[in-house]
Amino acid sequence: MMDKHRRIVITGIGLTAPNGNTLDAFRASLLKGVSGVVPFETRYMGKVLAGVCTYDPLKYQMKKEVRRGTRAGSIAIYCSREAMADSKLDFVSFDKSRVGVYLGITEHGNVETENEIYNISQFNYDTKFWSHHHNPRTVANSSAGEVTLNMGITGPHYTIGAACAAGNAGVIQGAQMLLLGEVDIALAGGVSESIHTFGIFASFASQGALASHPDPAKASRPFDRDRNGIVCSEGGCVYVLERLDHAEARGAQIYGEIIGYHINSDATDFVLPNAERHIECMRTALKKAGLGPQDIDVVSTHATATPLGDIQECIALRTVFADCLNTHFNNTKSFIGHAMGAAGALELAGNLPSFDDGLIHHTINVDHLDPDCALDNLVLHEPRRVRHVTYVLNNSSGMLGINSVVVVKRV
Predict the structure, then answer these.
(1) CATH of the domain at 153
(2) β-strand 157-161 against 99-105: which pairing, if any?
(3) Domain end residue (candidates: 249, 276, 310)
(4) Whole-prediction pTM value?
């Protein structure tokens, strides 16, 4: 058995999603089929559909701090504080230089720059009205840095720009820094403020990839024949990661052990996924975990409800998990839309309770399954109870052809 000093476990989870602000609330919404997609007003475009979070930013920040910082930073602070509280770590007396913060992001700075340009447009574009807070708000490390300022953490911090694979990438970076001995506690995951920039909606609309539906709750439709694009969402999920020996020494609860991961690149297209590279990514992660495809109980799919993207992922899944009779597939974006940099971390969190309750949450809004997206054991319409869940594989991919996979084991 691997040395416990080389085994990385999850001991705390903090999150905000469009349909829940704690893991328990989020999981309950997934099991009950509750969507978090609502109408949302955005500059220049009017009403769009989005996944909007309702957490209380003043739980861990003063009003002045919220105003000075960013939405992504506020989400990161909320999730990190919630995760640390959940871990039951004695954070007050813990050596803050041995804590690291590693947060995946998709985009950053767009919101603040758009806001400032809009503000000075009201004054004939006179730049003397440009905010002096703009630079610290838009540097790429700001969300992770805001966490360190709020929590007094003096260890390393940075963000990982990995498009929509960023949530997984943050978790992977945290695990690697623990294995290197650089930190003893890692706050790792992903955050997104994407819905507060009109540009992301306008860009997806110009690509013909922005979802629409008369019923907002039914707009995000991965795998459905009538899917018509992405629902943009905000959110965040941060994990407390530590080495197993450290966790056991303090009697910590353990949600799961990170036993395998991999990141690779398509090197073929700006936006269209490459099934062959996705296959390689999953197979390499499984090899690192010492598992075969047949060992995986739940695959959390990335599918975003774009016509071609969903098909490419399903080609990869059918190839890797061919004849795996006990491997089940589900999708979380059907509930909350695409939370961009937070997506992978949130989607993993929604499946971790399966280790304890034996329930695999379903995929909603698949009224007519696209034959090109058909998967054996795709869980639709209602949760499925199974005899046990021991291994979860979490898929996330993103623009510029980045793929990421994380494999977690029940402890």
Answers:
(1) 3.40.47.10
(2) parallel
(3) 249
(4) 0.98
